[in-house]
TrEMBL record:
<dbReference type="InterPro" id="IPR001881">
    <property type="entry name" value="EGF-like_Ca-bd_dom"/>
</dbReference>
<dbReference type="InterPro" id="IPR000742">
    <property type="entry name" value="EGF"/>
</dbReference>
<dbReference type="InterPro" id="IPR049883">
    <property type="entry name" value="NOTCH1_EGF-like"/>
</dbReference>
<keyword id="KW-0272">Extracellular matrix</keyword>
<keyword id="KW-0732">Signal</keyword>
<dbReference type="GO" id="GO:0030154">
    <property type="term" value="P:cell differentiation"/>
</dbReference>
<keyword id="KW-0130">Cell adhesion</keyword>
<keyword id="KW-1015">Disulfide bond</keyword>
<feature type="domain" description="EGF-like">
    <location>
        <begin position="157"/>
        <end position="195"/>
    </location>
</feature>
<dbReference type="GO" id="GO:0007155">
    <property type="term" value="P:cell adhesion"/>
</dbReference>
<keyword id="KW-0221">Differentiation</keyword>
<dbReference type="InterPro" id="IPR024731">
    <property type="entry name" value="NELL2-like_EGF"/>
</dbReference>
<keyword id="KW-0964">Secreted</keyword>
<dbReference type="InterPro" id="IPR052235">
    <property type="entry name" value="Nephronectin_domain"/>
</dbReference>
<keyword id="KW-0106">Calcium</keyword>
<keyword id="KW-0245">EGF-like domain</keyword>
<keyword id="KW-0217">Developmental protein</keyword>
């Protein structure tokens, strides 16, 4: 195949017959094809012809999608919320799945609310507050254990003297107290109860 005039942006397929590369036209493939003038138009909003190609642009408040269409940049998918969002009057607001979480400074991710330090948590007198991500729970105070007593769970005093979890001296007696214990040196011995001489 010989093309006397040559094929500038294409290849010679037969006697003086050029096959043009995409974006070019004409007998010798030397002319730029204006894709913006094609029907259907390749871009939804704005089209700019370039040498051998074209570029799509979107109007303000819209985002260019891979297929050349323009999608509102005010949709949940575009905002990239951590847990989801809602659209109210064209405005997009990210949401957090529980009251124990609040929107972070970036407006997209949720950060934990420490209910224990803010005083929002309600735990009974013999329980302490443990913060978790998005919530909290009430755990028995130290010296108490959770037991099923008369039809419900309750925090009951641990008798350290019976469970042998005290650190009293061998020469001291253990006295159980509510939530704790005391050590008292036996007769004839002196000291803190942890050390008796």
């Amino acid at each position: 195949a010989i093309c006397g005039h040559g094929c500038k942006y294409g290849e010679c397929m037969g006697p003086n017959k050029c096959k043009c590369l995409p974006g070019f036209t004409g007998k010798t493939c030397n002319q730029d094809l204006n894709e913006c003038g094609l029907k259907p138009r390749p871009c939804e909003h704005r089209c700019m012809n370039t040498h051998g190609s074209y570029k799509c642009y979107c109007l303000n408040g819209y985002m260019l999608m891979p297929d050349g269409t323009c999608a509102s940049s005010r949709t949940c998918a575009m905002v990239n919320c951590q847990y989801g969002c809602e659209e109210v009057k064209g405005e997009v607001q990210c949401l957090c799945p529980s009251g124990g979480l609040q929107l972070g400074p970036n407006g997209r991710t949720c950060i934990d609310v420490d209910e224990c330090s803010t005083g929002k948590a309600v735990c009974s007198y013999n329980r302490r507050c443990i913060n978790t991500f998005g919530s909290y729970y009430c755990k028995c105070q130290l010296g108490y254990e959770l037991k099923y007593v008369s039809g419900h769970y309750d925090c009951v005093d641990v008798n350290e003297c019976v469970t042998n979890t005290h650190r009293c001296s061998l020469h001291a007696e253990c006295l159980n107290t509510e939530g704790s214990f005391k050590c008292k040196c036996k007769q004839g011995y002196r000291g803190s109860g942890f050390d008796c001489a």
